Each structure stands twice: as structure tokens, then as C-alpha cells.
Amino acid sequence: MKGKDLSSLLSLKDELKKQAEEKERLRLKEEKRKKERRAQQVFFEKEMSKLGVSKQTYAKNLANINLPKPAPLPLQTHKDNQAVLEDSLSDQIGIEHLLASDDRISYFQKGVAPNVPKLLHQGKWSIKGSLDLHGYTSDEAKQLLVLFLNEQRKAGHRAVRIIHGKGFGSVGRKPVLKEKVPVWLVQKKEVLAFVQAPEHDGGEGALLVLLSAP
């Protein structure tokens, strides 16, 4: 009887030890995830700041207690920012029929000369701005892309680079942004054309985009 009691006690001790180890493993995992989310948030806010978008503009749920009032913005600027934030891009539309069937992905809007993507790839227009979407969630990348295109076009820049990556760092190594960015771009009326970047500009991990004049 005593032998059985001792055996049961040892088994219980082992089980409690395993539970404690598992709890600690999950705690460390969650702590790591929180640190990664904080790092991504800081990076996201820095990128937004570069585009001239304040944190209050996109963080609607943050409290604004006893903060100094910002300098008044021109009415048109406010309307532009609102239009950007409210811009809705679908992830579900099919664009295969809009893409060229050559050895690299390319697209040109109706009314644009068919050779524009090729000229863009060859460097006819110098690249004036670049956006790196590595590390962002799909929703963050979509919002940042819309803001970036809006700011670049207002600045008079015609050609820009969007770096979506090749998907090697994604869950399951699936190229999520590589597949979604072209879908978003074809829905933007200011995007006249885009083409896969040359190898020295990112190759399969980036697109060169031609924008309409402001």
C-alpha cells in the first residue's frame, strides 16, 4: 500500500512538474509574441510618420486626454486623409485576365500603351519612392500601401517601388503579400501600370508602379 502511495505521489509530482514547464513555455512564447507585436507597431508608426500621417489619424480607439490641440489642417488635407483611410480594397477579386502572360507579372490600365510595363521595367521612369511591406500584417500593409500611393502621387512622383517580398518568412512560406499587392494595385485608378522589378531592384519580391499625374 505504501509502495502504491509513493508511486502515485511520484507520478503526481512528475505531472505537476510537466504542467509547470508547459505553463512557463507558454508564458515565454506569449512574451515573445508581445515583444514582436510591439516592435512591429513601433516600425509601423515610424513608417506612417514618414508619410506625414499622425498616430491619431489611424488609431481611432486611442484615448486623447489633455493633449495639446494640433495645428489646424487645411480642409482639403483633412478630406484627403479621410478618403485614404476609408478607401476599401477587396482581397477577393480575380485579376488573372488583367495580367500579361509573359515571363514576369505586369499590368497596364485600359487606355495605356501596352509597352508601358516594359518601358517601366527598363527604367524609362526613375524610381522616386519605395515602400517595404516586410513584417506587416495584410491589413496593415493594405492601409500603408494606400497612404503611400496617395502621398507619392501628391508629391508628383510618377514611378515608385513596392517591396512585398517573396513570402519565405511567412507562415507556411506562402507569399501572402506577393499575391495580394497586385490585387490591390489594379483597384487603384491612379495606378496606370506595374511590372515585376528587375533583379537589382528586388526581382520577384518587388513591383515597379507607374502612377498618373496628380
TrEMBL record:
Keywords: Coiled coil. The keyword Coiled coil applies. Residues 6-38 form a coiled coil. It holds the Pfam family Smr. The keyword Coiled coil applies. SMART domains: SMR. InterPro entries: Smr_dom (IPR002625), Smr_dom_sf (IPR036063). Residues 131-212 form the Smr domain. PANTHER family: DNA ENDONUCLEASE SMRA-RELATED. This is DNA mismatch repair protein MutS. The lineage of its organism: Bacteria, Pseudomonadati, Pseudomonadota, Betaproteobacteria, Burkholderiales.
